[in-house]
Amino acid sequence: MRYKKKVVGQAASEKNRIIKILEDANIKLSSVLSDVDGAVGMKIINSLIAGQTDANELVKCYHGKMKVSKTEFKQALEGRSTPHHCFMLQLHKDRPMLI
What we know:
Blueprint: H1 2-24, H2 29-32, H3 39-49, H4 55-58, H5 70-77, H6 83-94
Helix pairs in contact: 1-6, 3-6
């Protein structure tokens, strides 16, 4: 039980680090998505890692079941992602999550 608690804590820490990196790049993904590591969030993170920083391209990940409007979603994606942010996102994404 203690081990499981530790693993869950580590996974939450990695998720928080990814959110912090995104917010440092002025990308407020956590304000428009309920689950940053869900399908839409991971598509956006993978696109950022691949070097796609244009909000017009990233907004294509939007789907109709989202609670925010498309313009709010686009505003949340407008940021200044640097190669260092992409590297750090890749680093934290590759960390094994044992859950």
